[in-house]
Amino acid sequence: MILADAGCEVTLWARRPEVAEAINTTRTNPDYLPGFVLPEGVRATTDPAEAADGAEFTVLTVPSQTLRENLARWAPVLPSDTVLVSMMKGIELGTAKRMSEVIGEVAKAPAERVAVITGPNLAKEIADRMPAAAVVACRDEAVARRLQTACHTPYFRPYTNTDVVGCELGGAVKNVIGLAVGIADGMGLGDNTKASLMTRGLAETTRLGLSMGADPQTFSGLAGMGDLIATCSSPLSRNHTFGTNLGRGMTLQETIAVTRQTAEGVKSCESVLDLARRHGVEMPLTETVVDIVHNGKPPLVALKELMSRSAKAERH
Ligand SMILES: NC(=O)c1ccc[n+]([C@@H]2O[C@H](COP(=O)([O-])OP(=O)(O)OC[C@H]3O[C@@H](n4cnc5c(N)ncnc54)[C@H](O)[C@@H]3O)[C@@H](O)[C@H]2O)c1
Ligand SMILES: O=P(O)(O)OC[C@H](O)CO
């Protein structure tokens, strides 16, 4: 929608023929965005070759853990000069790779042809054309500027950044912190708790980023603090809502059963922790989320353990 509103011709690839058909005939996606009419510049197909034909930008937004498998199928039909754009906010399980790394590896694309769009961009608010800012990151600033122009609309204001690592980490870790804040909400805890989780969550994200060569300033920008605020404050966030259900006492299976859309943090909390361990970085909040979500630790027990950790200086 944003790309079409900015004047681009857009072809969506859809898995299900009925979704492509609905988009082409009614300009709606009744399953995922009922009530929203897509702009004229958007059409859909189930044929990846048709979707990729002549594409200046190829925007990838499948659930992170399915990217490698999907992209392996699409890679042969991608134009050799297309810029591959990730909107995914996850880290691959098993490899602990960022999505841009998976893209580079599978599509054999150099870093100059891989970009990221991230920031406080809750889908429903975007579909409502409510004003939002974002970050368009690419190691090659000229490519970032081209993409910035391609997605700049009166309601969507993208800023460029060359710190791809920091932008991707901000997006992936905020989902884990969003789960933690949701759990706190579900437990009936207050705003001091939430503010503390968000702030210390950003501190551990920054710590990880620094160890991976990211620019620490990225984390106080839209990809870091901005997205963290949106995710941790909004009931529209799937990660936040997932956490709230867990905090209210639902089991993991019950929570998964009532969650239809992708909550990336549920899987990525494990890969973020894996990444942190590979870099020798302590991430106590991420570890706590993994314990609650995957190791069956009751939230109250996890909270007590978190609060009784040894006292530290703030910058640690
Ligand atoms: N929704 C948002 O507000 C938002 C905003 C910014 C970034 N993101 C990121 O976008 C990525 C995708 O999330 P989303 O919001 O589109 O999720 P979603 O659950 O709303 O949609 C996922 C889409 O992928 C499809 N899908 C599921 N499994 C698939 C598979 N194995 N192969 C191919 N397609 C598959 C689904 O049919 C659906 O169309 C995530 O990394 C998320 O963090 C989401
Ligand atoms: O619904 P969530 O939790 O995946 O968050 C959506 C976006 O990432 C917010 O920017």
Automatic annotation (TrEMBL):
Positions with a binding annotation for NADPH: 15-16, 32, 89, 123, 238, 264
Residue numbers binding substrate: 89, 238-239
Key word Nucleotide-binding present: yes
GO BP terms: carbohydrate metabolic process; glycerol-3-phosphate biosynthetic process; glycerol-3-phosphate catabolic process; glycerophospholipid metabolic process; phospholipid biosynthetic process
Catalytic activity line of the entry: sn-glycerol 3-phosphate + NADP(+) = dihydroxyacetone phosphate + NADPH + H(+); sn-glycerol 3-phosphate + NAD(+) = dihydroxyacetone phosphate + NADH + H(+)
All residue ranges annotated as the Glycerol-3-phosphate dehydrogenase NAD-dependent C-terminal domain in the record: 163-302
The protein's enzyme class: oxidoreductase
All residue ranges annotated as the Glycerol-3-phosphate dehydrogenase NAD-dependent N-terminal domain in the record: 1-143
The entry's keywords: Cytoplasm, Lipid biosynthesis, Lipid metabolism, NAD, NADP, Nucleotide-binding, Oxidoreductase, Phospholipid biosynthesis, Phospholipid metabolism, Signal
A Pfam family the protein falls into: NAD_Gly3P_dh_C
Alphabetical list of InterPro entries matching this protein: 6-PGluconate_DH-like_C_sf (IPR008927), 6PGD_dom2 (IPR013328), G3P_DH_NAD-dep (IPR006168), G3P_DH_NAD-dep_C (IPR006109), G3P_DH_NAD-dep_N (IPR011128), NAD(P)-bd_dom_sf (IPR036291)
Locations listed in the record: Cytoplasm
Active site: 174 (proton acceptor)
Pathway: Membrane lipid metabolism; glycerophospholipid metabolism
EC number: 1.1.1.94
Transmembrane is among the record's keywords: no
Binding locations of sn-glycerol 3-phosphate: 89, 119, 174, 227, 237-239
GO cellular component, as recorded: cytosol
Single annotated GO MF: glycerol-3-phosphate dehydrogenase [NAD(P)+] activity
Residues given in the record as NAD(+) binding sites: 123, 238
Family designation: Belongs to the NAD-dependent glycerol-3-phosphate dehydrogenase family.
Task of the protein: Catalyzes the reduction of the glycolytic intermediate dihydroxyacetone phosphate (DHAP) to sn-glycerol 3-phosphate (G3P), the key precursor for phospholipid synthesis.
Protein name in the entry: Glycerol-3-phosphate dehydrogenase [NAD(P)+]
Organism: Streptomyces liangshanensis
Gene coding for it: gpsA
